[in-house]
Amino acid sequence: MTNTYDDNAPIALVTGANRGLGLAVARQLAEAGATVLVGGRDSARAADAATALREAGLAARPVTLDVTDHAQVAVAAAHIEREHGRLDILVNNAGILPEATTPDLERPLDLAAFRSTFETNLFGVAAVTQAMLPLLRRSPAGRIVNVSTAMGSLAEQLDPESPYFGLVLPAYQGSKAALNALTVALSKSLADTPILVNSVCPGWVQTDLGGPDNRAAAPTSPEEAAPVVARMALLGPDGPSGTFVDRAGPLPW
C-alpha cells in the first residue's frame, strides 16, 4: 500500500463517490493515475471509501460535500484550492430519484419531489461547477463530466419504440434534460478554453438510486458502467465537448 501523491497527477473530484457508480468511477480514475477526491455528504462514509482506495494502493482523499449545501460547496472548493491549487477533472455524479423510492408521492406532479430532485440533480451540479470552475481554469486540460441518463432524452421519451417511452418520472427526467441543457451551455461558454464538458449516460446501473428492487433488476454493475464516465473524464485535447453519449456512442438530446 502507498499513500504518496504525485503533484503532477491529475486532480479529480467525483461527487457522490462514497458508493455505487461514483466509487467505481473514482477507483477507475485513480487506477488511471489521478489523485481522486472522494466527495460525499456523509464525511465518515467518504473517509471510509477513500481509505479503501488507499489500501488498494491508489491516491484518494475524502472531501465532505453535500451538493445541496452551498456553504459546504464553497468550503470544499477552498479546501481543494489550498491543498492542490487546481482541479483537472470534475465528475458531477451525485443524484437522487425520489419518484422511484417514495411510494406516497402525488403523481405525476408532486411538487416536493420536483424541488428536491432539481435541488440535487441540477442546482447542485450548477453550484459545484460554479465553485470549481476557477480551479478548472487553472488546469491545462480541464474536464467536466455530467452523469445523465437516456431517460432524460426528450427524443427517447417521445419515441414509442424506445425502451424509455413507458417511463413517467417527470421530476427525474426533467432534471436530467435540464442537466443536458446545462452541459450544452457550459460547452459553448467554455469553447475558448481547454475545458471540455460532456453528458454521459452510464446505463441502468445496480445502485441504490432506484430503490431496493433496482439492484436485482438493473443489468449493469457499477464497475461495468464506470468506464464510459472515466473515458470522458480522461479525454485528450482533441476530444469532443457538448456531447451526450453512452457506451455505444452519441445519444439524442
Automatic annotation (TrEMBL):
InterPro entries on file: CBR1-like (IPR045313), NAD(P)-bd_dom_sf (IPR036291), SDR_fam (IPR002347)
Database matches in Pfam families: adh_short (PF00106)
SUPFAM superfamilies in UniProt: NAD(P)-binding Rossmann-fold domains (SSF51735)
Keyword line: NADP, Oxidoreductase
UniProt xrefs under CDD domains: carb_red_PTCR-like_SDR_c (cd05324)
Signal peptide location: none
Similarity comment: Belongs to the short-chain dehydrogenases/reductases (SDR) family.
The name this protein goes by in its record: SDR family oxidoreductase
Native species: Promicromonospora kroppenstedtii
